[in-house]
Amino acid sequence: VLIAVIIGGGAAAFAYSAGWLSPQRLTPDKMVDALTPPTGEPLGHRRNHAKGICFTGVFEANGAGTALSQAQVFTRGQYPALGRFNLGSADPNAPDATVRVRGMGLRISTPDGQEWRSAMVNPPFFPVATPQAFYELLLASASKDPDAMKKFAAAHPEIGAFGAWDKSAPWTGSYAEDRFNGLNSFVFTDSSDAEHTVRWSLLPAARPVPVSPEDLAKRGPDFLEQEITERVRGGPQRWTMVVTVANPGDPTADPSKAWPEDRRTVEVGTLIVQQIEPERGGPCRDINFDPSVLPSGMRTSDDPFPAARSSVYAKSYDLRTGEAKDYPRTALDTKP
Amino acid sequence: MIGTRQRFTPLQRLLHWLMALCILAMLFIGVGMVSTVKPKYLTLVSIHKPLGIAILVLALIRLAVRLRYGAPPLPADLPEPMKLAAVLSHYALYILMIGMPLLGWGMLSAAAYPVVLFAGVHLPAILPQSDRLHTLLWNAHFYLAFVFFAVVLLHVAAALFHALVRRDGVFDAMAPVPTHNEVAAAE
């Protein structure tokens, strides 16, 4: 009997740890399920930001970032960069003009063997304050209840700011004209071991030209991918990386709240995109732009999102790498 | 082997109990981390990787020590099926102790993740990037974890059976400190 109790207790504790006894626990599986678009699971693709195109280039550090972090990536020099322009939709076939949020995944590698991975988007803040709220947002927006979104907005008023951005911010006709924001805060440690809580953004060198979504729709379903491919063929495209430093008391744990405009910013370098490749057989395809992959000199802050994103991205990665047959590496019908 | 030892050597017992703690912690951390999106996810992952490598190193040392010093014989009156179960389950445990960390390391390598043990301390990739390899190793790592836990439970149940029901000295051979009935249990 004692043996049965000990073994049973061990098994029960294991089941508890695995979450089998806690149906309310927010698991990466649930988050991935909630991301599933009406068009069905995007087999072989990322579970969100499913449509994208690869790029390679360099990050040219100007040395100014060494004041904030001891990471080698800020030492003056050029470091290889790999990335992915993408649409903030779980549908890999979404027409480009229908998706409000655009993103960029980025991996910068340094000779010390370390990597800085990041996934950024064009809105200046996140729609909600917590991963749990994001999950509820996904459920509400997929809900058949016509009042679901109203109820959600009442419970999460922070989404109002995102709605205002959605309506007022101009659309552009090119990834090269978009600003990409890291949104989450991270902690940088400088060479004197002082810590700075920061967020970062990539500011385009190309001047943004506003275009209405109606006009963009006329350019075809993949105009962004075609445009960036042609543009980069004509010459490398640049973004300035700007690191913003929080003041004490700034909301570092809540990416739905932008920091005041007057915060100290440091231009740390330039991302130069030199080549575009289709995702299908491209180098970004099997890279997980997990924002918790950071070089020493950077770490996560009290912002709960990087952990949640890391957990869910890993789930998405594990699923899609097992579904490669649903997204063959070579297209039978290659686009001209 | 010099004579027949009734107990494992102190080094073997130390390794056994140290690894028992590590492996149990590892299995719980493993199932816990893949079921949460909370900040503790990153904490758990950051323990899982160095602890896995520690278990790999300890397991290799343990295997060498086992090959050098052997193990006390099982009681002569132990029924043959139980002897077979004992031998096979120990092969399984050694294979898993060494195999699981390698699968984990290989799986991260095949996914092109940097294998970070501590801040700034990286292990090299042991496999090229490959979605097919990643899927194979990920599945093996995931399902074998449950097999591992089941074998551990079986091992604990058998140990308790030897200690409490048969009282045949098998448990005492690995007990962290000599138990009172050790002398009585011999022969």
Q: What would you say this structure looks like, in words?
A:
The complex is a heterodimer of chains A (336) and B (187). Chain A has helices at residues 2-17, 28-35, 131-142, 148-155, 159-168, 213-217, 223-234, 305-321; strands at residues 52-61, 77-87, 102-109, 115-121, 180-181, 186-189, 195-204, 237-245, 265-278, 298-300. With 336 residues, chain A is an alpha+beta fold. Chain B has helices at 10-33, 40-69, 80-110, 131-166, 170-174, 182-185, and strands at residues 115-118, 121-123. Chain B has a two-stranded antiparallel sheet.
Number of DSSP helices of chain A?
Answer: 8
Low-confidence stretches of chain A: none
**Major beta sheet summary of chain B:** 2 strands, antiparallel
Rg of chain A is 21 Å
Helix-strand makeup class of chain B: mainly alpha
Q: Which structural class should the secondary elements of chain A be placed in?
A: alpha+beta
Please report the total strand number of chain B as a whole number.
2
Set out the fold topology:
The complex is a heterodimer of chains A (336) and B (187).
Chain A lengths: L1 H16 L10 H8 L16 E10 L15 E11 L14 E8 L5 E7 L9 H12 L5 H8 L3 H10 L11 E2 L4 E4 L5 E10 L8 H5 L5 H12 L2 E9 L19 E14 L19 E3 L4 H17 L15
Helix pairs in contact in A: 2-3, 2-8, 3-4
Chain B lengths: L9 H24 L6 H30 L10 H31 L4 E4 L2 E3 L7 H36 L3 H5 L7 H4 L2
Antiparallel strand pairs in B: 1-2
Helix pairs in contact in B: 1-2, 2-3, 3-4
